[in-house]
Write a structure and sequence with these properties.
Helix 3 links the parallel strand 2 and strand 3. It contains 15 helices and 7 strands. The radius of gyration is 22 Å and the shape is globular. Helix 7 packs across helix 10 and helix 11 runs parallel beside helix 12. Bound molecules: S-adenosylmethionine (SAM).
């Protein structure tokens, strides 16, 4: 989740850090996989001008509408698509938008979705238990709550919410079904858990778990990160901002694994995996918001930014026409820095 000054605005989290991590440059091509209100996208377009291009993706049609209005001034340089980022590669192939200089994932929800969107994302507003990012998805939070077994609910709340009271909450839910609204669910959780615990509202973890399950958040993130690598050009940057430990763990492990050649289990006498490095970590330590940012925007407090750069090894074999097309187009547009161009020439001549 990023931040909100009011119910109708979404302020991009770690904005300067994101632009720096993406190494935004004039004439660059970028993908924002989580367009939201278009805050990061506007800054990317601003810094990549003249000649910058941006493909913006969001599963939520209302986000696309908001971003389209915000990015009106850049309409000639943007392509905004109402799609799920699980289809990232297919979208880029369809619109011939690859390779790119940078890909951003700013995960979670925008303030527009959290604050009274009427879709049940927040335990602070009464609404039907929906939680779908897109109305085209079939399964709602109410479907999961009202049709899962007690065991399934307990597992889901424990795994996706990291909630220690998962079994107890599941038991109370099953006793009180059918449950239709957010506040109905909140009251049940409060009874199960027994009021407020520490700084977190007792419903926080269960709502997180339901949202993750409804939108397949963890599986889709894993799959999209993998697709992102294949779309990055030479020294292209992958930047991910996550808001809870389950997401951050996936991003961290993915980047660390892709930053190594062999990923065989320790003690394996000779490499069996054949895995080769595809990323270089840009920031070894995770980047978090400053105190000033958190004060201005309390929702940014859990944000964690990780960045990595596409590595093309000397022995990598350039068999795909996509990569060759990129090589040909490099001098015409895109990478303009002479040092990069020289490195790229060397990489291609070595392959
Ligand atoms: C934190 S907001 C992004 C805010 C944006 N960076 C800005 O500055 O306005 C996250 C956005 O990602 C979208 N989103 C989350 N998961 C998605 C997915 N799997 N596919 C496409 N969009 C997704 C949400 O609908 C939401 O609009």
């Amino acid at each position: 989740m990023s931040r909100a000054m009011s119910t109708s605005t979404h302020i991009p989290v770690l904005l300067e850090e994101t632009i720096k991590a993406l190494a935004v440059q004039p004439g660059g091509r970028y993908i924002d996989c989580t367009l939201g209100g278009g805050g990061h996208a506007a800054a990317i377009l601003d810094r990549s001008s003249p000649g910058g291009q941006l493909l913006g993706i969001d599963a939520d049609p209302t986000a696309i509408k908001a971003a389209r209005s915000r990015l009106k001034a850049y309409s000639g340089s943007t392509l905004l698509i109402n799609e799920n980022f699980i289809n990232l590669q297919a979208i880029c192939y369809k619109y011939d938008f690859f390779p790119v200089h940078g890909i951003l994932f700013d995960l979670g929800l925008s303030s527009l979705q959290l604050n009274g969107s009427g879709r049940g994302f927040s335990f602070q507003h009464n609404a039907p238990l929906d939680m779908r990012l897109s109305p085209t998805q079939e399964v709602t939070a109410a479907d999961i709550i009202n049709t899962s077994t007690e065991g399934e609910l307990a597992h889901l709340i424990k795994t996706y919410g990291e909630e220690g009271y998962g079994r107890r909450i599941a038991r109370y839910i099953v006793q009180e079904r059918p449950i239709k609204t957010t506040l109905q669910l909140v009251r049940i959780i409060e009874r199960a858990v027994g009021g407020r615990r520490g700084r977190l509202h007792p419903a926080t973890k269960t709502f997180q778990a339901l949202r993750i399950a409804v939108n397949h958040e963890l599986e889709y993130l894993r799959a999209a990160l993998r697709q992102a690598i294949s779309l990055l050009g030479f020294e292209g940057r992958l930047v991910v901002i996550s808001y809870h430990s389950l997401e951050d763990r996936i991003v961290k492990q993915f980047m660390q694994q892709e930053a190594r050649d062999c990923i065989c289990l320790p003690g394996t006498p000779a490499c069996l995996c054949g895995h080769t490095v595809s990323l270089r970590l840009v920031n070894k330590k995770v980047i978090t918001p400053s105190q000033a940012e958190v004060q201005l925007n309390p929702r940014s407090r859990s944000a964690r930014l990780r960045a990595a750069e596409r590595v093309i090894t000397q022995d990598e074999y350039y068999e795909s026409t996509e990569k060759l097309c990129f090589a040909a187009s490099v001098e015409a547009k895109g990478w303009r820095r002479p040092v990069l161009l020289e490195k790229l020439r060397m990489a291609f001549s070595a392959s």
